[in-house]
């Protein structure tokens, strides 16, 4: 009961920490009402690109700066994602339209012009936020529905040719036409913001005499803005005037569903049908596997229990013959305990994160909430890692439990942190906002050493005090010789075959997850993701049990590591798929961006290996104990 109370307290602390995030709320719970004329402050976020994948601070480019740049309170997830939310010069008044308002006038030096050109080449987009809604550009779909979808953010600029010019030049989108959609309360005069759109354009503004207090531009008539003026070229020593319009449009969209347009994904019909098709195939295969296993096993157990004479028993072959060796401790049993404990930690973190997401706690409106929750949950789940690792270690009659606990606490996080640190150094060298600041790095180390490591030791202590897991049969003192195995039962082949089905259960959903991460789209279909996760668990368990059964039938009792690696090999296919995705879907050309992509996909694949391997191991462990406790053994 003491350990249960400890876990409950930790969860309460975790919920309190997450609930204190500035942008945290359940969707539809915390709307803001604006009266006519109330000030609206547009915030700016990072510059992002699907070609370069490295985010930059908005003010990395020579945009208009307010008198004092203030950072909005950021949570851990926002910092890790490279979000840098700051104030801007773009200010509106609710339901009061404004035309050609001047933001500022800047003169580009050589460095500024070079930075603008590089970001235009890499198709960087500017991200802004109004009332927690990201700015979007309307895009007309070319299918039969002719519906409209949003592109997140607007391009910094574009390349093109002026009339009579033979070479392409760079132009900056220096005029922004904002449109704010609002839903008015029929009973009061207040309204809620339900949409934030922008139409960017490039205008080479002209003026007679510049007045800083009240600048008057000659290029501000609507018919001129719509395209009859020359675009604003990016060159050193060029003067750029940033301007903006704002219009307001009443909308029937309710506040609670204002994110729906952002969450619409491309090829949505393909997405739904593919997911359903994948689930049906995997469910069918799982049912077939379960039925075959149950019928074959019941027959085997019945045959073994009906043997009456010693001669009959000696003539019998199969998995019963290795009963004296099947629970013999494997090579590197301590390392196996570490990996199993880590896998339990990853599984618990994933499960609780998905439950939070299903309940709506981690919606896209809670920016950075998903990553914050994952980091905090990982830290607190160290308790389960230590417990499960110690229980397994005690079963193998290990004596150095402190050393085993240290490995559990440091090995997997240490590998992750080392790779993360190297990647961060590369990103820092590119001056990207994706580089994690020193303070955040220190906070991560504190969470690891100050909370996770002590919890692993607490869990290990609780696990070591529990009685050891007893084997259902006794182990012989002398190991039995393993007969020559058929080629298809060799470890390398069976392990690789075992990973195909679990990967097949998730690869379609994996495509959409990768698209949301690397192509700057929102992912919010957590219901389907949870179903796919359950299917993954079932598939990992069943494929491992089937291959373990065939292995024992061929009198090979080295099943411990093979069970872990059989399901874990699906991570190899995940990494190979990420390589395929890189060359077919992404347009990354820079070396650092490529290192960034493959580095993080390697970490994801490693975590997936630990997760699926642990699921397969525990399924096989339960299966082996069940069958050997069901037969009469003299």
Give structural attributes:
3 domains, 5-stranded antiparallel sheet, 13 strands
β-strand amount: 5-15%
Number of strands: 13
Gap from first CA to last CA: 39 Å
Number of helices: 18
Mean pLDDT: 81
As for the number of domains, it is: 3
Biggest sheet features: 5 strands, antiparallel
Taking pLDDT < 50 over at least 5 consecutive residues as the criterion, the unreliable ranges are 1-29
Kindly state the percentage of residues in helix: 40-55%
Radius of gyration: 30 Å
Shape: elongated
SS-derived structural category: alpha+beta
What does this structure look like?
This protein is of the alpha+beta class. It is built from 18 helices and 13 strands. The protein folds into 3 domains: about 1-30 and about 330-470, no CATH class; about 30-265, no CATH class; about 265-300 and about 485-634, no CATH class. Strand 6 (about 135-140) and strand 7 (about 150) form a beta hairpin. Helix 10 runs parallel beside helix 12 and helix 15 (about 525-555) packs across helix 18. It starts with a helix and ends in a 6-residue tail after the last helix. The chain has helices at about 1-20, 75-80, 110-120, 220-230, 260-265, 270-305, 310-315, 335-360, 370-380, 380-395, 400-430, 440-465, 490-500, 500-520, 525-555, 560-570, 570-585, 590-630; strands at about 40-50, 85-95, 100-105, 125-130, 135, 135-140, 150, 155, 155-160, 170, 175-185, 190-200, 240-250.
């Amino acid at each position: 009961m003491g350990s249960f109370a400890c876990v409950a307290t930790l969860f309460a602390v975790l919920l309190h920490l997450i609930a204190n995030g500035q942008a945290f709320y359940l969707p539809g719970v915390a709307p803001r009402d604006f009266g006519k004329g109330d000030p609206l402050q547009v915030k700016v976020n990072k510059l992002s690109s699907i070609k370069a994948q490295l985010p930059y601070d908005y003010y990395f480019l020579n945009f208009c700066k307010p008198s004092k740049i203030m950072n909005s309170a950021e949570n851990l997830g926002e910092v890790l994602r490279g979000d840098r939310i700051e104030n801007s010069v773009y200010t509106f008044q609710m339901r009061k339209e404004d035309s050609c308002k001047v933001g500022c006038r800047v003169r580009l030096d050589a460095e500024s012009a070079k930075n603008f050109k590089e970001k235009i080449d890499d198709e960087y987009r500017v991200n802004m936020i109004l009332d927690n809604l990201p700015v979007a550009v309307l895009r007309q779909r070319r299918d039969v529905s002719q519906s409209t979808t949003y592109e997140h953010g607007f391009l910094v600029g574009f390349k093109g040719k002026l009339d009579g010019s033979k070479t392409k030049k760079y132009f900056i989108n220096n005029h922004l036409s904002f449109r704010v959609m609002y839903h008015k309360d029929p009973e009061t005069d207040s309204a809620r913001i339900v949409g934030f759109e922008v139409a960017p354009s490039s205008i080479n503004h002209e003026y007679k005499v510049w007045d800083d207090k009240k600048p008057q531009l000659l290029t501000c008539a609507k018919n001129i803005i719509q395209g009859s003026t020359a675009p604003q070229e990016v060159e050193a020593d060029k003067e750029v005037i940033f301007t903006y319009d704002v219009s307001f449009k009443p909308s029937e969209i309710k506040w609670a569903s204002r994110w729906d347009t952002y969450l619409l994904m491309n090829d949505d019909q393909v997405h739904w049908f593919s997911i359903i098709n994948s689930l049906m195939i995997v469910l069918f295969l799982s049912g077939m596997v379960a039925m075959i296993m149950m019928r074959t096993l019941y027959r085997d157990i019945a045959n073994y229990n009906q043997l009456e004479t010693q001669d009959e028993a000696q003539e019998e072959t199969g998995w019963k013959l290795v009963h004296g060796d099947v629970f013999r401790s494997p090579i590197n049993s301590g390392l196996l305990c570490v990996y199993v404990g880590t896998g339990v930690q990853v599984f618990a973190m994933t499960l609780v994160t998905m439950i939070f997401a299903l309940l709506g706690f981690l919606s896209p409106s809670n920016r950075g909430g998903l990553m914050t929750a994952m980091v905090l949950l990982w830290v607190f789940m160290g308790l389960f890692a230590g417990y499960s690792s110690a229980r397994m270690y005690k079963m193998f009659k290990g004596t150095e439990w402190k050393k085993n606990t240290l490995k559990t606490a440091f090995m997997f996080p240490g590998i992750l942190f080392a790779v993360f640190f190297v990647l961060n150094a590369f990103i820092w060298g590119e001056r990207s906002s994706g580089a994690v600041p020193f303070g955040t790095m220190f906070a991560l180390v504190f969470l690891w050493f100050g909370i996770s490591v002590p919890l692993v030791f607490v869990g290990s202590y609780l696990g070591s005090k529990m009685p050891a897991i007893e084997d259902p049969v006794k182990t012989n003192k002398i190991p039995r010789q393993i007969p020559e195995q058929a080629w298809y039962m060799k470890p390398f082949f069976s392990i690789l075959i075992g990973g195909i089905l679990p990967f097949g259960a998730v690869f379609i959903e994996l495509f959409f997850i990768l698209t949301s991460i690397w192509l700057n789209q929102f992912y919010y279909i957590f219901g389907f993701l949870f179903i796919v996760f359950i299917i993954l668990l079932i598939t990992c368990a069943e494929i491992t049990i089937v291959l373990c059964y065939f292995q024992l039938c061929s009198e090979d009792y080295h099943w411990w590591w093979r069970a872990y690696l059989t399901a874990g090999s699906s991570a190899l296919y995940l990494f190979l798929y990420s390589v395929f995705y890189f060359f077919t879907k992404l347009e990354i050309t820079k070396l650092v961006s490529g290192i960034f992509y493959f580095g993080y996909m390697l970490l994801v694949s490693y975590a997936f290996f630990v997760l699926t391997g642990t699921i397969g191991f525990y399924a096989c462990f339960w299966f082996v104990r069940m069958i050997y406790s069901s037969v009469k053994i003299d």
